[in-house]
Amino acid sequence: MDIKIKITDREGVAHEIDAPTDMNMNLMEVVRSYELAPEGTIGICGGMAMCASCQCYVLSDHVLPEKSDDEEAMLSEAFNVQENSRLGCQLHISEDMDGLEVQLAPEEL
Ligand code: FES
Fold first, then answer.
1. Which of 50, 56, 72, 79 should be mutated for ligand 1, with most atoms under 8 A from CB?
2. How many A from CA of 53 to the centre of ligand 1?
3. How many CB atoms lie within 10 A of CB 102?
4. Ligand 1 test: best mutation among 29, 41, 54, 68, most atoms within 8 Å of CB?
5. Predicted local confidence at residue 44, as pLDDT
6. Which pLDDT score, from 0 to 100, does residue 43 have?
7. Among positive and negative, which fits the CA dihedral 11, 14, 19, 24?
8. What pLDDT score was predicted for residue 55?
9. Mind listing the pLDDT tens digit for each residue in 51-68?
10. pTM of full prediction above 0.90
11. pLDDT of the residue at 108
12. Atom of ligand 1 nearest to the CA of 90
């Protein structure tokens, strides 16, 4: 099935998109597939929790899976990290995420 996710891009524009729960996608890949961030600015490590280019802020109060040690470690080194920061590539799209609202963190230069 598809779930709705609201993604605010780095320009501050909100996009209400449909994301499939049955294609084994993560949030970073969804952002890429909708081209909500320019090529080369998101998903740089390919989803290995090693670059933080996919960092986003979770704005809704969804209960998401705990961060793995790898995600924690990467976020502890990244810029612009907030309490609600997550790595999009570590968020696997699931039905529990219906209605999720996230904002892409600024690009790390
Ligand atoms: S794509 Fe590199 S940490 Fe998510």
1. 50
2. 6
3. 23
4. 54
5. 96
6. 97
7. positive
8. 98
9. 999 999 999 999 999 999
10. yes
11. 79
12. 4
Decide if 31 contacts 104 (C-beta within 8 A).
yes
C-alpha span between 68 and 53 (Å, rounded): 17
Radius of gyration of the chain (CA): 12
d(CA 99, CA 81): 23
Residue 91, exposed/middle/buried by CB under 10 A (0-12, 13-18, 19+)?
buried
83 vs 93: CA distance, rounded Å:
21
The one-letter code for the residue type at 45 is C
- Residue ranges of alpha helices (H) inside the chain are 27-33, 69-77
Give yes or no for residue 109 having a pLDDT over 80: no
